[in-house]
Amino acid sequence: MAEKKSLIQELTKGFLAENPVLRLVLGTCPTLAVSTSVTNAIGMGLSASAVLICSNIAISALRKVIPSKVRIPAYIVVIASFVTIVQMLVKAFAPALDESLGVYLPLIVVNCIILGRAEAFAGKNKVLASAVDGLGMGIGFTAALLAMAIVRELLGAGTLAGIQILPSFINPMTVFILPPGGFFVFGMLMACANKIAESKGKPKAELHGCESCPMAASCKLINTDESCNNPKEATVE
After folding, report:
1. What is the DSSP string of 12-63?
2. pLDDT tens digits for 14-70?
């Protein structure tokens, strides 16, 4: 029962409390770039979620095999492999979506959300928990993209998924499909997410420990008490 409850918590934490976009502010580049339409948002969200789940499973399964000092390059190789598979599938079955997403589809390889979950969670936990974590974070990422896309496309073009919604006599506010409008909507959604989370007693999620340190990949003191208590003494090879 306790394990089941823990898995449910791992699944739901990405929805709001640790939403990768609106709470942890990760993956903002594709979020702002592809959220101009609902179709693009769904396509990017599903693609990134598939890569996130598969890479979490693979990295968790190999966590005891991958040497600590080369884990980041190893993670990137694993992620890149799944991104290539997803990109080929999208290109084969949804060429219009592939053309619309452009360079942002292959750039999933360096998406901070995926690499961050690999480093902070999948590399330290069992396969099932890692798969659930990837699913929850993927849903949270897709939901954030979709929320932004609905607002931006509706107000900026008067459509949703290409279907005309606003009457023809209402002129869309084009600024919403431009970068300034994207930043405005992003900021408003972040404020709403933080307000809702805080009202439910969930403080803003923060990264702690070695995974948030830029020297973690080459630190000699990583995974020791000394690295947390005396971070200034950590050395890099």
Report:
1. HTTTTTT-TTTTS--SHHHHHHHTTSHHHHHHHHHHHHHHHHHHHHHHHHTT
2. 898 889 999 999 989 989 999 999 999 999 999 999 999 999 999 999 999 999 899
- Asked if 218 and 122 sit in the same domain, the reply is no
Which pLDDT score, from 0 to 100, does residue 2 have? 55
Measured CA to CA, the distance from residue 177 to residue 32 in angstroms comes to: 10
- The residues near 127 (Cβ < 8 Å, ≥ 6 apart) are 57, 60, 61
Residue 89 has pLDDT above 50, yes or no: yes
Same domain, 74 and 110: yes
Burial of 142 (0-12, 13-18, 19+ CB in 10 A): buried
Structure tokens at 193: 């997410």
| 149 shares its domain with 179 | yes
pLDDT tens per residue across span 99-117: 999 999 999 998 989 999 9
Which residue is listed with tokens 């966590």? 63
Same structural domain, 27 and 10: yes
Contact (CB, 8 A) for 141 and 48: yes
Domain that includes residue 116, residue range: 2-205
Same domain, 41 and 68: yes
pTM, to two decimals: 0.82
Pair (83, 125) in one structural domain = yes
CA quadruple 62, 63, 69, 71: dihedral, nearest 10: 60
